[in-house]
Automatic annotation (TrEMBL):
It catalyses: an aliphatic primary amide = an aliphatic nitrile + H2O. This is nitrile hydratase. Keywords: Iron, Lyase, Metal-binding. Transmembrane segments: none annotated. It comes from SAR86 cluster bacterium.
């Protein structure tokens, strides 16, 4: 399981809600859940199954597996950039919010970043649910205008001659950034490679570093 690097300076960090707000939100969700159950609109089994899917089946570990496979298997990589949806499905990932995937490759010349300027569209099957900062107005508005500034705020600096491309997700298309494979990882296995790929690098705001 990959984790968010909390050492990274990140002004869009997911600590935006304070404790009181969290408590109020939890109470509201609990009340809604109780009401839905009471009225027979959902079953406890269905709720448990959904929670289980979001906690265990969907998440950045899936995207990390896609990236690691692309790094070690040139044929897979070719298929991934031709048709990301079907290549990702080869690894067993797909479905809701991942029906039309596009993979974009970071190279020494090009750096890709993903945003949803309208709301929070995000590739659930490979990255799970979006972090709070991805949904924040600050990120959505600023990354389009000043992508390099946003990158710097995430601790990512690029050479001046690197082209930055910002991809705006929509209800139709979801993007997955395939970060550059770091130097010094030639001897790592596919699963060891997957373990170093963090969520933020697949949104494009950070790079992957060697372990
Ligand atoms: Fe959206």
């Amino acid at each position: 399981m990959t984790t968010h690097n909390h050492d990274t300076p990140n002004p869009y960090h997911e600590s935006a809600r304070d404790d009181a707000e969290n408590k109020a939100l939890t109470e509201r969700v609990n009340k809604m859940e109780a009401l839905l159950l009471e009225k027979g609109l959902v079953s406890q089994d269905a709720l448990d199954k959904l929670t289980d899917i979001y906690e265990n089946d969907l998440g950045p570990m899936n995207g990390a597996n896609v990236v690691a496979r692309a790094w070690i298997d040139p044929d897979f990589k070719k298929r991934l950039f031709e048709n990301a949806t079907s290549a990702i499905a080869e690894l067993g990932y797909g479905g809701l919010q991942g029906e039309h995937m596009v993979a974009v490759e970071n190279t020494p010349e090009i750096h890709n970043i993903v945003v949803c300027t309208l709301c929070s569209c995000y590739p659930w099957p490979v990255l799970g649910l979006p972090p709070a900062w991805y949904k924040s107005f600050a990120y959505r508005s600023k990354v389009v205008i000043e992508p390099r500034k946003v990158l710097a705020e995430f601790g990512t600096t690029l050479a001046d001659d690197v082209e930055v491309r910002v991809w705006d997700s929509s209800a139709e298309i979801r993007y997955l950034v395939i970060p550059e494979r770091p130097e010094g990882t030639e001897n790592l296995s596919e699963s060891e490679l997957a373990a170093i790929v963090e969520r933020d690098s697949m949104i494009g705001v950070t790079k992957v570093s060697a372990p």
